Amino acid sequence: MLGGKLKSRRVARPWLDKRAQAEEIFTPNMAKIVLALATSHSPMLCVPPNEWVASYGAKDQHDPSLPHYPELYRQNSSRLAAELTAEKCQERFATVQGAMDRMATTLQRISPDAVIVIGDDHHEMFSEDHMPAVNVYWGEKYLNSPAELEKIPPFRRAGMWAYHPQEPEWYPCHAVLGLQVIGSLIAQQFDIAHSRSVLSDRGIGHAFNFIVRRFMAATRSIPLVPIFLNTYFPPTQPTVQRCYALGKALRQAVESWDADKTVAIVASGGLSHFVVDEPMDRALLAAMAQKDQPAIC
Questions:
Q1: 158 CB-contact burial (10 Å; exposed 0-12 / middle 13-18 / buried 19+)
Q2: What pLDDT does residue 219 have?
Q3: How many whole angstroms separate alpha carbon 260 and alpha carbon 262?
């Protein structure tokens, strides 16, 4: 309201239909979520398909974290043999590359003012000296350094381009939106951790670097708000129900931001891990498509 009169505004937002644009004329200056994306950040998305069986398959046979590999092989080898041919691997690689290219093109076309990335951590940013359930990063930027290839197993090296540059790169972050998210989540009864910098001997993590390097190469200047969920390390893992509630609270945090800004949200993670549980994955995808909250939680 200005001088007792409602100030109208028109903002070019081609992703809105005409009715939504008309309704927006009299909307206060509040931020809007204009895009949501979700992707795995698995190295398998970045490693050439000829390495899938030769490198990763060979590694699995001797991986101490997979002591039940012989039993899995006995149960599934005949069923999956046709899926492991060179032709099938190339076909699947082309499919996932095409899907990620479409996501990158969409993000670059929408070109939001900020991108909130929700990801996990594998002892990259956090270790046992401090392992928060939920952490919001609200620094001005963060550094992505080249990978130390001598410390990376050979089977992983071919995919490192999607996580680390050859020369150090600084990625901008949206500190103002990060602080808005923190304040709103606290007001909604979420007790969260925060960070504004990264220790020199740590990195912000592949879940976030993957999004920048694989999906934002043409628009790298879009600032991020990294949000960490503790996926792997007890006892501070949030429950699925709590994560679902966090998603709803995050929407409220963005839409209550008093700024004429557009925001994209990107989920960076995956479903079943290390050993694929295809029935569970498909059931969860179906539940999300149907917006079936009880099934998701």
A1: middle
A2: 77
A3: 7
Question: Which of 264, 251, 261 shows the shortest CA–CA distance to 211?
Answer: 264
Token pair of 202 as six digits: 């740590």
One DSSP character per residue, 91-105 reads: HHHHHHHHHHHHHHH
Who's near 270: CB < 8 A, 6+ residues apart?
A: 40, 41, 42
Beta strand extents in the chain (DSSP E only):
32-40, 114-119, 134-137, 141-144, 169-172, 193-195, 224-229, 262-269
Distance of CA 295 to CAs 36, 37, 242, 243, 283, Å?
21, 21, 14, 14, 9
Calculate the alpha carbon distances from 74 to 57, 68, 80 in Å.
15, 10, 11
Within 18-156, strands assigned E span 32-40, 114-119, 134-137, 141-144
From the list 204, 206, 160, the residue with the least C-alpha distance to 41 is 206
CB 122 within 8 A of CB 232: yes
Question: Could you give the maximum distance between any two Cα atoms of the chain, in Å?
Answer: 77
- Split at pLDDT 50, 70, 90, the class of 13 is very low
Closest of 270, 178, 266, 146 to residue 216, by C-alpha: 266
Between CA 211 and CA 217 the distance in angstroms is 9
Spatial contact of 244 and 297, defined as CB atoms under 8 Å apart: yes
33, 263 contact by CB (below 8 A) = yes
* Predicted TM-score (pTM) of this structure: 0.88
Give me the pLDDT at residue 218, please.
78
Give residue for tokens 């100030």: 7
Sequential DSSP letters for 147-181: P-GGGS-HHHHTTGGGT--SS-EEEEB-HHHHHHH
